[in-house]
Amino acid sequence: MAAGLGSRFGGVKQLARVGSNGEAFLDFSINDAMAAGFGSVVLIVRTEIEADVREHMAEQHPGMDITYVRQDDLGPPRDKPWGTTHAVLSAAGVITKPFAVINADDYYGAETFRLACQDLEKGAPGRASNVAFEMGKTVPPRGAVTRAVVQIDGRYFTGLVETEGCERREDGTLVAGDEVVREDTPVSMNFWCFDPSVLEHLQHQWELFLLANAEVPKAEAQLPTMVNDLIGSGDLKVAVVRSPEQWIGITNPEDLDLAIAALADR
């Protein structure tokens, strides 16, 4: 998913060059995914950045067959994208096999893609998975962030709790809000694995959302919310796959130098 506005970053962070050879995060993801056994790449963009994304891809992945879809082609028209469920549905016409959904502006690590590819081999209608990260490997060295803490019943995902104030204190303690938490507390960084049959269910959820929010200028149809709804209705069971990788991402401009340093040896 590479159609976001990057408003807090102040630019097209999907193409921010964080690698020593001019790579963006999505280039690392594409390389890791192909090495893990994924077969094809679909980039979800928006019209105003499509040419820049295509130019970047031609530079970083010459000759690779990449499918492009424009999220804004799936209406109704609006300046702000309609959210991550809408993004996935904009690619529904080219998805025919089990697939993973990721953010273009996050670094997930090679092992994450290997685990995801293995899990997709178990794919079946009514089954999905969330590849969760350890909170201690997703918080910055300084400052607080919000993380989506994964709720689990046995091996299965039951929901997310958006938790503010996730940070590492000077003594090394990891906290979420006012509560001390374990380093391996699972959090979702928006890495999902689905059978293509989920698209029909998401389409139904999207239609219900649009009926209620067509005139709400900032409303977003978010994938975690609609996955929760599908779990509640019994249409989806979501396994939790735990990644040992260090997550790296950028939200604000000052995060860029940290990301470049962290990726220097990749």
Explain this structure to me?
The protein is built from 7 helices and 12 strands. The chain is an alpha+beta fold and 266 residues long. It has a single domain (13-262), classed as Spore Coat Polysaccharide Biosynthesis Protein SpsA, Chain A (Alpha-Beta Complex). Strands 3, 5, 6, 7, 8, 9, 10 and 11 form an 8-stranded mixed sheet that branches. A two-stranded parallel sheet has the order 1-2. A hairpin with a 5-residue loop joins strand 7 and strand 8 (174-176).
Could you write a compact summary of the structure shown?
The chain is an alpha+beta fold. Helix content is 29%, strand content 25%. The strands form 3 sheets. Strands 3, 5, 6, 7, 8, 9, 10 and 11 form an 8-stranded mixed beta sheet that branches.
Number of domains: 1
CATH architecture: Alpha-Beta Complex
Mean pLDDT: 93
CATH-defined superfamily: Spore Coat Polysaccharide Biosynthesis Protein SpsA, Chain A
| Helical content band | 25-40%
CATH topology label: Spore Coat Polysaccharide Biosynthesis Protein SpsA, Chain A
End-to-end CA span = 22 Å
Helix segment count? Answer: 7
CATH class type: Alpha Beta
Strand content: 25-35%
Tell me how many strands there are. 12
Q: Quick one: biggest sheet?
A: 8 strands, mixed
Global Rg: 18 Å
Spans of at least 5 consecutive residues with low confidence? none
Question: How does the overall form come out from the CA principal axes?
Answer: globular
Order of helices and strands: HEHEHEEHEEEEEEHHEEH
> Which structural class should the secondary elements be placed in?
alpha+beta
